[in-house]
Amino acid sequence: MRRANGFTLIEMLVALAVFSIAALALLRLDGFAVATTADLAARAGATLVAENEAALIATDPAPAILGTSTREHSNGGRSFVIQQAVTPTADQRLVRVDLAVIDRGSGARALLTLIKRVR
């Protein structure tokens, strides 16, 4: 019996299975890219808030008060928790200020440390 030109049903099913596996892999990769982009945006927001707080602390003429504090801050429609720890250094003219900013929505964190002169 002579074979007709074209593909058999089995060949078509195998090709469809290979194509569907590749399509699912691309969908998963796209989902990962979207999640990564959202995480980067949240971290960028937390970093911006941390840098703004550091600038406020560095330019404040009042001396930094030793100890820890926690406060809420809102920026760009997002809510952040700012944790600040002020500790003395070996040089009594300087204090160390550690800032941790946490995005309430995503949990993204930004950490920043600065040294401030005591006046």
Characterise this structure:
- The structure is a single chain.
- This protein is an alpha+beta fold and 119 residues long.
- The protein has a single domain (9-117), classed as GSPII I/J protein-like (Pantoate--beta-alanine Ligase, Chain: A,domain 2, 2-Layer Sandwich).
- It has 1 helix and 4 strands; from the N terminus they run αββββ.
- The N and C termini lie far apart (100 Å).
- Component of the type II secretion system required for the energy-dependent secretion of extracellular factors such as proteases and toxins from the periplasm.
- Residues 41-114 form the Type II secretion system protein GspI C-terminal domain.
- It comes from uncultured Sphingomonas sp.
Oligomer: single chain
Question: Which superfamily, in CATH terms, is the homologous superfamily?
Answer: GSPII I/J protein-like
Helix content: 40-55%
Please give the order of strands in the largest beta sheet.
Answer: 1-2-3-4
Tally of DSSP β-strands: 4
* CATH architecture grouping: 2-Layer Sandwich
Give the overall form.
rod-shaped
CATH topology: Pantoate--beta-alanine Ligase, Chain: A,domain 2
Number of domains: 1
